[in-house]
Amino acid sequence: MTAVRDVTGRLATWLRRLMPDGDRQAALMTELAAFRDDDRPVTAELCARVEAAAWRVSRHVALIFEPDGTGAPDTEARQWPRQDPAAVRARAGSVSQARRLPDGTALIRVDGLDEAGLAAPYVDAAFTLARGARRLVLDLRANGGGDPATVALIAGWLLGDEAVRLSEVVDRDGRRQWWTADRPPGSALTLDTTVLVGPGTFSSGEALAYHLRARDRVLVVGEATPGAADHVLPVRLAPTVLAHVPRAYVVDAVTGTNWEGTGVVPHRVVPVDQALDAALSGSFPG
Questions:
Q1: Cα gap 224→271, rounded to integer Å
Q2: CB distance 251 to 258 below 8 Å
């Protein structure tokens, strides 16, 4: 039998191994300490309670209960598996929509951020379609995140021809900067752009909206995003529990901070299911 205290104790150990030292790591330890004497067998409900406590510090912490799991707890850190190129091609790099509307609006919907090397042909094709449009609506309402390099790829279409520093990712080994790439002169899009966000916009999906908003490049419409700004790794804490453990955090190059806990706050708050219609009509409440 695996008890809640076993799971939270192992999670605390992994946080000390993976997460940068500092106030946020200490705050997570404080939240987990509330479960140190909890000897109840771990269940989906109790995993959710631990998650809820951890979310006060990191919205990216996840405890996934797998009742039929049999794998041994991890002793070494593992990475996310590489994506299946055929699967990425089958979903067109998560570009689920790219079209021109009758009024000249280019509408692009990106539902995830697949590995940049696989997603680039589809992303570039979609944004090429937007060249010459009257305006652009970029729909990220179902974007659950993914590769930071794809964030930079998309941002590069909208932030100008010269390379732009987007962020630093801080982990125990130091800092890694993320930049857009230099583009051929005149190739970046300059048209008015609206970005749609909501509760389904998560992690690196939030990063894309946040970086564009911080540079006053877009109008953000919809509902606030969940506010998950950490990078995480998958770690098995018990046969029945797989965790997402924070290993790094993001610092935007303009704001000096990130969207953790607050989410990306829209310029125009609209129910998420009405955001597209509102953006197209230009009619917002309030």
A1: 10
A2: yes
- For 63-107, how does the pLDDT look when each residue is reduced to its tens digit (9 = 90+)? 999 998 888 999 998 889 999 999 999 999 999 999 999 999 999
Residue that is written with structure tokens 């379609």 in the block: 129
> Buried b / exposed e across 24-37, counting CB within 10 Å, b at 16+?
bbeebbebbeebee
Output phi, psi for 271, to 5 deg. Answer: -50, 135
Q: Which of 100, 170, 187 is nearest to 135 (CA)?
A: 100
Tell me the one-letter amino acid at 220: V
User: Are the CB atoms for 164 and 179 separated by under 8 Å?
Assistant: yes
Q: Give CA–CA dist 1/277, Å, rounded.
A: 52
Residues 6+ apart with CB under 8 A from 48: 63
Indicate if the alpha-carbon torsion angle 50, 257, 182, 126 is positive or negative: positive
Selection from 111, 237, 87, 253 nearest residue 169 by Cα: 253
What is the H or E stretch that residue 209 is in?
helix 204-214
